[in-house]
Design goal:
Blueprint (H helix, E strand, L loop, with lengths): L16 E7 L2 E8 L2 E5 L1 E3 L12 H6 L5 E3 L1 H6 L3 H6 L3 H5 L5 E3 L3 H6 L4 E4 L2 E5 L6 E4 L1 H11 L3 E3 L11 H28 L1 H4 L6 E6 L5 H14 L3 E4 L8 H11 L9 E4 L4 H9 L4 E3 L2 H6 L3 E3 L5 E3 L19 H5 L2 H9 L3 H26 L1
Parallel strand pairs: 4-14, 5-6, 6-10, 10-11, 11-12, 12-13, 13-14
Antiparallel strand pairs: 1-2, 2-3, 7-8, 8-9, 15-16
Length: 375
């Protein structure tokens, strides 16, 4: 595809994010991408392989999704970025016209403790699918994501367990900083080449990842050095992995005041609505998490009222009230709790669809209300 003939024009990276309001409730902003404008704060549904189980892209749009997160690790191992690139990039391949964020794949690799080894230049790992050997380093992480063609991409980082020793967290932090520099260099080189790798549209926004575990000084060190390098956005990783809620807030209290106001801030892996609200108030602009969908598939239903139903409990067997009369999801305003109980107990896929639509709808609606309250 010839970049020069595309209708989309490259975005001025220095003005991609506009901060509109900053109040005690949080920040209200706007991120401009080649595939549309995203209003912040926002939550990203996780479409691991370019889709969400049981939901169509039309469902996501109807619920108000502004952006989709796709998983680099799974796309790389299954279909491969070359196939996606030949299709015209992820947007064309999955037929999604709004923005896409791709992660680096690093988190999935690091979670495969028995299948990988880490050194200062990258990670060697074996596929969880067929055991084949692979290598992921800062340069390949950028090459893969540029070929996928997302609007926002992530630097490769090392995510240490929150229970790791300080010496291990320090090593991971230093490695994250080293890789961030290498990712930016590779990203800039790919931007200069532009068309052959990106296809059509603007170059992606590059987000670094701030690590440091629960060690406040290491978090501050990592944030300050990454800011000195300079990125389009700043992600905070290594949280929502088993630490106490207050410990997570403590990290945000240490890091957020250090981050530049005119750049978006991304807290990775957080999806509990009450936590989203508190984290927005601390200055976070964007989130992703599989939690709403995961708990839906196990029968936990989030309601617009803030309550949670364990729909597989016997008390719902003859509860013929609609699932949630105030839900943004039409399925929950139509079907009864008894019917959803029946589908979940029978393990019918339609039950998963109803449950996932409900939980995602409530989560996206909560973020929409936050945006309105901040204004």
């Amino acid at each position: 595809m010839d970049f020069a003939t595309c209708n989309l024009q490259p975005i001025d990276m220095s003005s991609a994010f506009t901060l509109l309001h900053s109040t005690r409730l949080g920040r209200r902003g706007r991120i401009e991408t080649a595939h549309g404008v995203i209003e912040t704060p926002f939550f990203m549904p996780v479409g691991t392989a370019g889709a969400m189980k049981g939901l169509t892209h039309e469902d996501l749009l109807a619920l108000g999704a502004q952006i989709l997160l796709c998983n680099t690790y799974h796309l790389h191992l299954h279909t491969g970025e070359d196939v996606v690139f030949k299709a015209g990039g992820l947007h064309a391949f999955i037929h999604w016209k709004k923005p896409i964020l791709t992660d680096s794949g690093g988190y999935q690799v690091f979670s495969l403790a028995r299948l990988r080894s880490i050194d200062d230049t990258g990670v060697t790992f074996r596929s969880h699918i067929d055991g084949s050997k692979h290598r992921l380093d800062p340069v390949s992480a950028m090459q893969i994501q540029h070929k996928l063609g997302g609007d926002m991409i992530l630097c490769l980082d090392q995510c240490p367990p929150s229970t790791a020793k300080r010496s291990e967290i320090l090593e991971a932090t230093d490695r994250t900083l080293k890789w961030a520099r290498e990712c930016k260099t590779a990203h800039e080189m790919l931007r200069k080449k532009a068309a052959p790798l990106q296809g059509c549209g603007s170059m992606p926004l590059l987000f670094c990842v701030i690590q440091g575990g629960l060690e406040r000084d290491l978090r501050e060190k990592c944030a300050q050095e990454l800011i000195a390098i300079g990125f389009d956005g700043y992600a905070i990783g290594g949280l929502a992995v088993g630490e106490m809620e207050q410990e997570m807030y403590g990290v945000l209290d240490a890091v957020c005041p250090l981050l530049p106001e005119d750049h978006p801030r991304y807290l990775m892996g957080v999806g509990v609505i009450k936590q989203l609200q508190k984290c927005v108030a601390k200055g976070i602009d964007m989130f992703d998490c599989v939690l709403p969908m995961r708990i839906a598939r196990h029968g936990k239903i989030l309601l617009s009222s803030g309550e949670t139903l364990d729909i597989d409990k016997v008390i719902f067997r003859d509860d013929f009230a609609v699932i949630d009369p105030e839900s943004p999801s039409p399925l929950s305003r139509t079907h009864s709790r008894a019917y959803l109980h029946h589908l979940v107990k029978m393990k019918e896929r339609y039950g998963e669809t109803i449950a996932c639509m409900q939980n995602l709808a409530v989560t996206l609606e909560a973020m929409k209300k936050l945006r309105e309250q901040i204004i």
